[in-house]
Design brief:
By secondary structure, this protein is of the alpha+beta class.
Length: about 375
């Protein structure tokens, strides 16, 4: 009996010692950080799926605590200029979530590309919009590029950082809102290739000075310990394009009687034929906003002579013009630059690419779908007008 009691006590002591092992503690803290980051990403993606499809895809502004009247965990109102990226604490309250904390008990931080933030909004937002955040590794190599956002776990305090309470109305997260006190490295002299994980030169190091891409650093050394999760453009639009109302909205724009009348008479100009189209000619505000964000996908040409085209495998009545909504880009296509976006081959494929020309098509051999289908998202949606 005594031997059994001794063995149980010895095993329990070993168990306690294992729990107190620094390596074990760090592993558990890292797991907590990873769980919080993953949960935050789910919450942010969920935020982009708004009730109205034309208002979807925007990410919330960070919690910047611009005034005492704004509750902790709430996204800021209009902050920074158009397309200016922002950095602050995760707006957990605006996401309908509890305050999410890393393994060291620090609330998560969050950087959003200016083109994806809620306010002020960018001029054009669609599945080809490039984020303004890049991530490099300790050796300077690129880990990710053109991200919509990053979520950051500050983790343990590093040299120079001060997380003492300065905002008394922040009972959940406490501390302060100076990004330099949470994100690394505090002293730029220790930076990786001159990059720090905040925006130098702005109040609380929270706003970009221009619309250029900002590089963040993933490293584990004496000067960097931030944990990251990325949000890509694809992360945002993958669930959005599965929605029935997204497909319906494309059809609503292409079938808008007022917009079709405009397309029938507007001068066909530019490589894609749409240089002169006016989204204000649509019949309602919803179609107008959608057109402003998605008109990059439109291509317009006149047929050499009145003729039918094939839509869903069926010949249409004869028409004089064709408008195409180019689907998502294929792997070999690029829409990153102005030149890319003026190149027809980056939107159309096969017979449609061969037939298309401006102002008059090479032939009338256009083949496409009547509605957008996320399962074949690069297929062209056509109208014969």
């Amino acid at each position: 009996m005594l031997i059994m009691v001794f063995m149980i006590a010895l095993a329990f002591t070993g168990f306690l010692l294992n729990l107190l092992n620094p390596t074990t503690i760090k592993i558990e803290r890292d797991k907590q950080s990873a769980r919080a980051l993953a949960e935050a990403k789910d919450g942010l993606i969920g935020f982009t799926i708004q009730a109205n499809v034309v208002d979807s895809a925007y990410l919330p502004n960070p919690d910047l605590k611009l005034s005492a009247a704004i509750s902790e965990g709430s996204q800021s109102g209009m902050a920074g200029g158009v397309d200016i990226s922002l950095l602050g604490k995760l707006p957990w309250r605006s996401l309908g979530m509890p305050a999410l904390k890393d393994g060291w008990g620090e609330c998560l931080w969050y950087a959003v590309s200016g083109r994806f933030k809620t306010s002020p909004q960018t001029t054009v937002l669609n599945w080809d919009t490039l984020g303004q955040i890049d991530v490099i590794q300790e050796d300077g190599s690129l880990l990710a590029i053109n991200l919509a956002a990053v979520i950051i776990a500050p983790n343990v305090l590093l040299s120079g950082q001060n997380r003492l309470l300065t905002n008394v109305d922040t009972p959940q997260c406490g501390g302060n809102y100076d990004a330099r006190n949470y994100l690394d490295t505090y002293n730029a002299v220790n930076s990786v290739f001159g990059e720090v994980n905040y925006f130098l030169g702005s109040v609380n190091n929270r706003a970009a000075l221009n619309t250029n891409n900002k590089r963040f650093v993933v490293a584990k050394n004496d000067f960097y310990n931030d944990g990251f999760v990325f949000i890509t453009t694809a992360d945002i639009f993958r669930p959005l394009i599965l929605r029935v109302d997204f497909s319906n909205q494309i059809s609503a724009l292409l079938d808008d009687v007022s917009f079709q009348a405009h397309l029938q008479t507007v001068a066909i100009s530019g490589n894609k034929g749409t240089a002169n189209i006016d989204c204000n000619t649509t019949s309602n505000a919803t179609n107008r906003i959608f057109c402003q964000n998605w008109s990059e996908m439109l291509l317009l040409t006149a047929l050499p002579a009145p003729a039918p085209i094939l839509i869903d495998g069926v010949a249409t009545p004869a028409c004089t013009r064709v408008v195409a909504f180019g689907g998502q880009r294929a792997a070999i296509q690029s829409r990153a630059t102005v030149v890319d976006k003026n190149t027809v081959a980056n939107y159309l494929e096969g017979s449609n690419l061969a037939a298309f020309a401006t102002p008059v098509a090479n032939n009338s051999s256009f083949v496409g779908n009547a509605t957008f289908n996320a399962a074949i998202s690069n297929a062209d949606v056509l109208r014969c007008i």
